[in-house]
Amino acid sequence: MTLLILGLILFLAPHSVRIVADAWRGAQVARIGLPAWKGLYSAVSIVGLALIVWGYGIARTAPIDVWNPPVFTRHLASLFTLAAFVLLVAAYVPRNRIKAAIGHPMVAGVKLWAFAHLLANGTVADLLLFGSFLVWAILDFRSARRRDRSVGAARAGVSLDASPSLAADVVVVLVGIGVWALFAFQLHGWLFGVRPFG
């Protein structure tokens, strides 16, 4: 469990700088430059992610149950995870209505993904992993919306001059569903040893 906790700290700490110290972050970027900041940020995050995967894998070999989720929570988790994948894709496709409506679809997607996995899993490691990501996503979303309001933007990354595109909306939904299906039916079992659909 120690490796998992260390990994969560190393991964979520750099991702939380804008939540707790946005002005300090701006000062550091000005001091060392954006490329150096992104390099340092990425290096710490990669180490953290590797420790999360390693630590979670070890914790799963000797699980400590907190509760036993009913079977229907797996179906809910699959539905919520599908929506999470669509939100993640929406973060990268310009001029889609989902991004225009939500503003920060990637963070919203992480929030939904974490909540879905909390529903369907009940060990201490699950609560630690997915609970940490859920709390981070809630705080990050609030912080991002506060920054939007401070600069007078209704939503981040959405130009008021850019009209929504139906083609972009279709791409977001179809790619999101496709990636979700690939992950749910193939990659999830291969990467994590758990097949959501048996």
Count up the domains.
2
- Largest pleated sheet: none
Terminal CA distance reads 27 Å
Helix/strand-derived category reads mainly alpha
Number of strands: 0
Determine the number of helices (DSSP H or I, runs of at least 4 residues): 9
Helix content: over 70%
Q: State the shape.
A: globular
Mean pLDDT: 91
Low-confidence residue ranges: 156-161
Q: How much strand?
A: under 5%
User: What integer value in Å does the Rg equal?
Assistant: 18 Å
Order of helices and strands: HHHHHHHHH
Topology summary:
Elements: H1 2-15, H2 17-20, H3 22-32, H4 34-61, H5 72-90, H6 97-102, H7 105-120, H8 124-150, H9 166-192
Helix pairs in contact: 1-4, 1-8, 3-4, 5-7, 5-9, 7-8
Membrane topology: Multi-pass membrane protein
Transmembrane segments: 40-59, 71-93, 113-139, 170-192
GO cellular component, one term: membrane
Task: Give an account of the 3D structure.
By secondary structure, this protein is mainly alpha-helical. The protein folds into 2 domains: 1-62; 65-198, no CATH class. Helix content is 77%, strand content 0%. The protein contains 9 helices and no strands. The chain has helices at 2-15, 17-20, 22-32, 34-61, 72-90, 97-102, 105-120, 124-150, 166-192. Helix 1 (2-15) runs parallel beside helix 8 (124-150) and helix 3 (22-32) crosses helix 4 (34-61). It is globular. One of its GO terms (cellular component) is membrane. It is found in: Membrane.
